Predict the structure.
Amino acid sequence: MKISININSRLKELEVKPNETLLSALRNNGYTEVKCGCSEGECGACLVLLDEKPVNSCQVLAMSIRNKQVKTVKGIGTLYLPHLIQKAFVEAGADQCGFCSPGMIVASYSILKETGNRPSKEDIRRGLDGNLCRCTGYVKIIEAVGMAAEKSLQEETQKPEAVCTNM
């Protein structure tokens, strides 16, 4: 069956099976940045934003997301136009093997959106809960999210105010 989904701000028609997960549908259609970890909703490797809310795509039936918006890590930033979070992960050394990184970045993006770029360490820990990493021990990941929040706030305060000259 064909369904229409907005993926990374582009309308796509995907052919899906009635019992197919969103994870499987995405990967079968070239969205390999969404990783398959445990297939049980425990590791966060398959995390995507569904209508701006983080969900484990392995736990969502593709048929249930008809006419909704999905954002993968590539919808947040790319190799050539990385998001502040992606830059912070690199700067903080939060990437090791990279397998958990897409899910961690999606979760981090959601944390910053939910807290208005002002997350506490507890907000960050809570927001990353459910995302497993076997390489870093989470310290550098938490630092990266804090670093991205700080840079985002700095950018906000450095924006020039609009001045009306038509008086």
